[in-house]
Specification:
This protein is α+β, with helices and mostly antiparallel strands. The chain is built from six helices and three strands, in the order ααβββαααα. α3 runs parallel beside α6. The mean pLDDT is 92.
Protein backbone atom coordinates (compact mmCIF):
# COMPACT_ATOMS: atom_id res chain seq x y z
CA UNK A 1 0.00 0.00 0.00
CA UNK A 2 1.25 3.47 -0.74
CA UNK A 3 1.62 6.27 1.74
CA UNK A 4 -1.64 8.08 1.02
CA UNK A 5 -3.60 4.87 1.59
CA UNK A 6 -1.81 4.34 4.89
CA UNK A 7 -2.80 7.79 6.04
CA UNK A 8 -6.47 7.07 5.54
CA UNK A 9 -8.66 6.82 8.52
CA UNK A 10 -8.64 3.28 9.87
CA UNK A 11 -12.40 2.89 9.73
CA UNK A 12 -12.60 4.08 6.13
CA UNK A 13 -9.83 1.72 5.21
CA UNK A 14 -11.67 -1.16 6.81
CA UNK A 15 -14.87 -0.42 4.87
CA UNK A 16 -12.92 -0.14 1.63
CA UNK A 17 -11.12 -3.42 2.27
CA UNK A 18 -14.41 -5.13 3.08
CA UNK A 19 -15.84 -4.20 -0.33
CA UNK A 20 -12.55 -5.12 -1.95
CA UNK A 21 -12.55 -8.58 -0.36
CA UNK A 22 -16.29 -9.22 -0.69
CA UNK A 23 -17.31 -7.34 -3.82
CA UNK A 24 -21.01 -6.70 -4.34
CA UNK A 25 -22.51 -7.08 -7.81
CA UNK A 26 -19.38 -8.39 -9.46
CA UNK A 27 -19.92 -9.96 -12.87
CA UNK A 28 -22.05 -9.08 -15.87
CA UNK A 29 -25.60 -7.72 -15.80
CA UNK A 30 -27.81 -9.69 -18.19
CA UNK A 31 -29.54 -8.85 -20.44
CA UNK A 32 -27.05 -6.06 -21.02
CA UNK A 33 -28.58 -2.72 -22.05
CA UNK A 34 -25.32 -0.79 -21.77
CA UNK A 35 -21.71 -1.79 -21.48
CA UNK A 36 -18.83 0.56 -20.75
CA UNK A 37 -15.13 -0.17 -20.46
CA UNK A 38 -13.09 2.35 -18.54
CA UNK A 39 -9.40 2.64 -17.88
CA UNK A 40 -7.45 4.85 -15.52
CA UNK A 41 -3.91 5.02 -16.91
CA UNK A 42 -2.61 6.81 -13.79
CA UNK A 43 -3.12 3.70 -11.68
CA UNK A 44 -3.90 0.90 -14.11
CA UNK A 45 -7.48 0.47 -12.94
CA UNK A 46 -9.65 -1.24 -15.53
CA UNK A 47 -13.37 -1.78 -15.20
CA UNK A 48 -16.13 -3.22 -17.33
CA UNK A 49 -19.54 -2.01 -16.29
CA UNK A 50 -22.79 -3.54 -17.51
CA UNK A 51 -26.28 -2.24 -16.83
CA UNK A 52 -29.76 -3.71 -17.15
CA UNK A 53 -32.65 -1.29 -17.34
CA UNK A 54 -36.29 -1.78 -16.42
CA UNK A 55 -37.65 -0.03 -19.49
CA UNK A 56 -41.23 0.27 -18.25
CA UNK A 57 -40.26 1.92 -15.00
CA UNK A 58 -37.21 3.64 -16.48
CA UNK A 59 -34.95 2.56 -13.66
CA UNK A 60 -31.69 0.73 -13.10
CA UNK A 61 -32.71 -2.89 -12.61
CA UNK A 62 -29.21 -4.23 -12.23
CA UNK A 63 -25.64 -3.12 -12.68
CA UNK A 64 -22.48 -5.15 -12.32
CA UNK A 65 -18.78 -4.59 -12.74
CA UNK A 66 -15.70 -6.61 -13.29
CA UNK A 67 -12.10 -5.78 -13.87
CA UNK A 68 -8.98 -5.18 -11.89
CA UNK A 69 -7.47 -2.28 -10.09
CA UNK A 70 -6.57 -0.84 -6.74
CA UNK A 71 -8.72 -1.36 -3.66
CA UNK A 72 -10.14 2.16 -3.88
CA UNK A 73 -11.37 1.73 -7.46
CA UNK A 74 -12.77 -1.74 -6.90
CA UNK A 75 -14.52 -0.91 -3.64
CA UNK A 76 -15.89 2.31 -5.12
CA UNK A 77 -17.34 0.21 -7.96
CA UNK A 78 -18.87 -2.22 -5.49
CA UNK A 79 -20.51 0.61 -3.51
CA UNK A 80 -21.59 2.44 -6.67
CA UNK A 81 -23.51 -0.59 -7.96
CA UNK A 82 -25.25 -0.98 -4.58
CA UNK A 83 -26.25 2.68 -4.67
CA UNK A 84 -27.46 2.66 -8.29
CA UNK A 85 -29.63 -0.46 -8.36
CA UNK A 86 -33.28 0.51 -8.03
CA UNK A 87 -32.75 4.19 -8.83
CA UNK A 88 -34.62 5.92 -11.63
CA UNK A 89 -32.39 6.85 -14.57
CA UNK A 90 -32.70 10.59 -13.94
CA UNK A 91 -32.25 10.11 -10.21
CA UNK A 92 -29.12 8.04 -10.83
CA UNK A 93 -27.66 10.71 -13.12
CA UNK A 94 -28.33 13.38 -10.55
CA UNK A 95 -26.73 11.31 -7.82
CA UNK A 96 -23.59 10.79 -9.88
CA UNK A 97 -23.38 14.53 -10.63
CA UNK A 98 -23.59 15.34 -6.95
CA UNK A 99 -21.15 12.62 -6.03
CA UNK A 100 -18.58 14.04 -8.45
CA UNK A 101 -19.03 17.50 -6.91
CA UNK A 102 -18.46 16.09 -3.45
CA UNK A 103 -15.31 14.33 -4.60
CA UNK A 104 -14.03 17.61 -6.00
CA UNK A 105 -14.69 19.22 -2.62
CA UNK A 106 -17.56 21.36 -3.91
CA UNK A 107 -20.69 22.06 -1.94
CA UNK A 108 -23.68 19.98 -2.94
CA UNK A 109 -27.03 18.96 -1.44
CA UNK A 110 -26.24 15.26 -1.44
CA UNK A 111 -25.84 13.69 1.98
CA UNK A 112 -23.61 10.64 1.87
CA UNK A 113 -24.09 8.08 4.58
CA UNK A 114 -22.84 4.59 5.24
CA UNK A 115 -20.07 2.84 3.36
CA UNK A 116 -19.79 5.55 0.71
CA UNK A 117 -18.46 7.99 3.30
CA UNK A 118 -15.20 6.09 3.10
CA UNK A 119 -14.93 6.86 -0.63
CA UNK A 120 -15.63 10.55 -0.01
CA UNK A 121 -12.69 10.43 2.41
CA UNK A 122 -10.46 9.66 -0.58
CA UNK A 123 -10.85 13.25 -1.84
CA UNK A 124 -8.17 14.24 0.67
CA UNK A 125 -5.75 12.26 -1.47
CA UNK A 126 -5.92 13.92 -4.91
CA UNK A 127 -3.93 11.23 -6.72
CA UNK A 128 -6.58 8.66 -5.78
CA UNK A 129 -9.66 10.68 -6.78
CA UNK A 130 -9.50 9.30 -10.34
CA UNK A 131 -9.48 5.77 -8.89
CA UNK A 132 -12.59 6.48 -6.82
CA UNK A 133 -14.44 8.23 -9.65
CA UNK A 134 -13.73 5.75 -12.46
CA UNK A 135 -16.78 3.50 -11.79
CA UNK A 136 -19.07 6.53 -11.40
CA UNK A 137 -17.90 8.04 -14.66
CA UNK A 138 -18.47 4.69 -16.35
CA UNK A 139 -22.01 4.57 -14.92
CA UNK A 140 -22.71 8.10 -16.17
CA UNK A 141 -21.56 7.02 -19.65
CA UNK A 142 -23.73 3.90 -19.47
CA UNK A 143 -26.80 5.98 -18.59
CA UNK A 144 -26.08 8.38 -21.46
CA UNK A 145 -25.80 5.38 -23.77
CA UNK A 146 -29.15 4.09 -22.52
CA UNK A 147 -30.83 7.46 -22.99
CA UNK A 148 -29.56 7.58 -26.56
CA UNK A 149 -31.28 4.28 -27.29
CA UNK A 150 -34.65 5.34 -25.91
ZN1 LIG B 1 -6.49 3.07 -8.62
Amino acid sequence: MDRSANQMDALYREVIMDHHRSPRNKGIALPTDARIESFNPLCGDRIELTVTIDKEKSLVKNCCYQGEGCSICMSSASMMTEEMIGKGIKEAQEYIGNFRMLMRGEKCPLLIEGDLESIIGVRNFPVRIKCALLPWTAMAEALTQIEGKQ
